Amino acid sequence: AEELIAESDLLLVLGSSLNVSPASYLPAATRANTIVVNRGEVMLSPSPNRFFVDEDIDAYFREVAGHLGME
To answer: How wide is the angle at C-alpha 60 spanned by C-alphas 41 and 51, nearest 5°?
Structure first.
């Protein structure tokens, strides 16, 4: 998994506070843009390529779908 993530162009972390290892270490394995969508605190340090959305996953992606004309 670490090799695949290291080679990725984009990493989505959905519905995880990243409190459980080994999954919590995976976002550190990439320099790709990382988007974290989770309601509440996430155990991942900010960096220029990390974007955090503190919202309900369903509501957030319904909004994204609407912006993409996929309602």
So the answer is: 50
